[in-house]
Write a structure and sequence with these properties.
Elements lengths: L2 E5 L7 H34 L15 E5 L6 H10 L4 H5 L8 H4 L6 E4 L7 E3 L8 E5 H15 L5 H4 L4 E4 L1 H11 L5 H20 L3 E4 L1
Parallel strand pairs: 2-6, 3-5
Antiparallel strand pairs: 1-2, 1-7, 3-7, 4-5
Helix pairs in contact: 2-8, 5-8
Length: 215
């Protein structure tokens, strides 16, 4: 399962996607996304009073894109954060224990949105087409949580990771190379995921675009 995340307009469509899907399927996917965006707007307005949730129409601009062929890309970082609160992962997921890192942890299936809007707790939206509610987090709040995590994670110890580019496509073979080169470092994959999320949240805030994460 691939980690696929981008900072882009809600209705961004790449040339490759348009060619693969064709006109009919592209329109079908847009209608499904429009329904999700409507529900997000309702929920955010109710929560914060804000109506602008980020750039919607496709400007041809994708400010940041990561495609990493590694399953459970966020799991190690999420468990690291939970450990900082001396909590247990499953207990947090069941709502039996609390954590300071809701926006980092609650996207546990690796699918959802982060918006360039501040709100303290994540929200969940549902449409007729969705089997399960969809996670919606706050990029500014996620960034705050990441900075708290970094007090212990200390990303500065991995200088090469700290210089992560805005675009990264890493297939299975390249991931093996990463593991060979850096895998012996303490908390390497925690730091790798940290840098990805930090870059995504910063670009989201800067460009006023949502982070869209799927698989």
């Amino acid at each position: 399962m691939q980690f696929n995340a981008g900072v882009q307009p809600f209705f961004h469509l790449t040339k490759e996607e348009a060619e693969i899907w064709g006109e009919e399927k592209s329109q079908e996917k847009r209608r499904a996304r429009e329904e999700i965006v409507r529900e997000i707007k309702k929920a955010i307005h109710l929560e914060t009073g804000v109506e602008d949730i980020g750039v919607e129409e496709d400007t041809g601009d994708c400010a940041c894109k990561f495609m990493v062929d590694r399953a459970g890309m966020l799991i190690e970082l999420q468990e690291f954060a939970i450990g900082l609160d001396e909590a247990e992962t499953e207990a947090v997921y069941r709502g039996e224990q609390q954590t300071r890192f809701n926006h980092l942890i609650e996207i546990k299936d690796g699918v959802g949105f982060y918006l360039p809007v501040y709100f303290f707790f994540p929200i969940w939206v549902q449409t007729k087409a969705l089997v399960y509610p969809l996670f919606v987090g706050s990029a500014p709040r996620l960034l705050e949580e990441l900075l708290l995590v970094n007090e212990k994670l200390d990303i500065e110890k991995s200088a090469k990771l700290a210089r992560m580019p805005d675009y990264l496509m890493a297939d299975e073979e390249q991931i093996e190379d990463y593991e060979y080169a850096f895998g012996s470092e303490d908390n390497f994959w925690e730091r790798f995921a940290f840098v990805l999320l930090k870059k995504l949240s910063e670009k989201s805030i800067e460009k006023k675009m949502p982070v869209i994460i799927d698989v």
